[in-house]
Amino acid sequence: MIAIKNAQIVLENGIEQNKALLFEEKIIGLVNENEIPEGAEVIDANGGYVTPGFIDLHIHGYLTRDVCDVSEESMRIISKGIVANGVTGYLPTTMTVDMKVIQGAIDTCRALMKEEDFDGSTILGVHAEGPFISEAKKGAQDAKYILKPDAEFVKKNADVIRIITLAPEEDTDNFDAIREIADKTNVVVSMGHTSADYETAMASTKAGVKHATHLFNVMTPLTHRAPGVVGAAFASDVSCELIVDTYHVNTALYDIVYKLKGRKLCFITDCLPAGGLDEGEYTLGGAKIIYKDNICRLEDGTIAGSVLHLNKGVWNVYTNSSIPLHECVNCASLNPATTLGIADKKGSIAAGKDADIVILDKEFNVEKTIIGGKIKYEA
């Protein structure tokens, strides 16, 4: 048994002090610090924060490695690298590239998901971002690989795909693919990289869309006469991703989005292979990426993903909004877990859940990352 003491323990509904957190492979619970069982290994958090492990629903790569490398070695490097950012579970995210590459990336993740005692952040499944998107809203994606929505591809990979990003307007008039995926699988259908108008987006949420990919970015905006996909995300019950690097979305919107979406809001990094590295030139899905002044862009200037660390994303929102810290943490843990349907096992510090835990200092730098009760990273 391990006990963490001298901590500000971030729970689902607040922050607990003067308690110790007990865990083995699973979380046991909280006790008074003078009630730590004899013989327990004690970790002193030095007055810092203890949070549930962070879950990143949208990350393309890290440390030069790309999910679309179709390489177990690349996936191991990404998984071990992001543990340093407090990420205990994530969805490796594919790009709009050749379907053989996308299938290869899915197959690679499938194999690693079966591996016992995997050494790194847990692969919870795959987020397939495309190739069923709008060319007009392709962003950093490659237009030549865009296809019409294909339910059969998703269904045959539904054991691994957890989120599929698509443009609803590219589906049939009756959203046949969306309906088929929603009816026959547990895959979360997400609207993103989309030119849909408000009416089409709203109709798609009734057909089976449950999520919105990187809200505001590469989708029709909210305006007073055309509410767009952003308006539909606000008006419906979908969960929403938000890239919280302070560049993709103005910080003034953090409070507004939280007030509208609450625990449907999920912080993501949309991190690229340049993550964890110095500024320079890199690639994403074969495209040249220029990482300069903390922003990644294509050669034409288009912003392309981020180099954000998720722990710092949580801190960005906390320090640029009135959102309580425990709710900022929920946006990177409980809310993503709820979106994926795994909140019974992960996403908060509660008895019986997996002991996926992060210890951070008072400025939210990661000191230790614990997965399944085992320390996987120490600063």
Describe it:
The chain has 379 residues and is an alpha/beta fold. It has two domains: 2-50 and 359-378, Roll (Urease, subunit C, domain 1), CATH 2.30.40.10; 53-344, Metal-dependent hydrolases (TIM Barrel), CATH 3.20.20. Helix content is 24%, strand content 28%. Strands 8, 11, 12, 13, 14, 15, 16, 17 and 18 form a nine-stranded parallel sheet that branches. A six-stranded mixed sheet has the order 3-2-7-22-23-24. The mean pLDDT is 97.
Question: Layout of SSEs?
Answer:
Elements lengths: L1 E4 L2 E4 L2 E3 L2 E5 L3 E6 L8 E4 L4 E4 L1 E6 L1 E2 L2 E2 L5 H11 L4 E8 L4 H15 L8 E2 L2 E4 L21 H6 L4 E6 L9 H9 L3 E4 L6 H10 L1 E4 L15 H8 L3 E5 L9 H9 L3 E4 L11 E5 L2 E6 L2 E3 L12 H10 L5 H6 L3 H7 L16 E4 L5 E6 L2 E5 L1
Parallel strand pairs: 1-6, 2-7, 8-11, 11-12, 11-13, 13-14, 14-15, 15-16, 16-17, 17-18
Antiparallel strand pairs: 1-4, 2-3, 4-5, 7-22, 9-10, 19-20, 20-21, 22-23, 23-24
Helix pairs in contact: 5-6
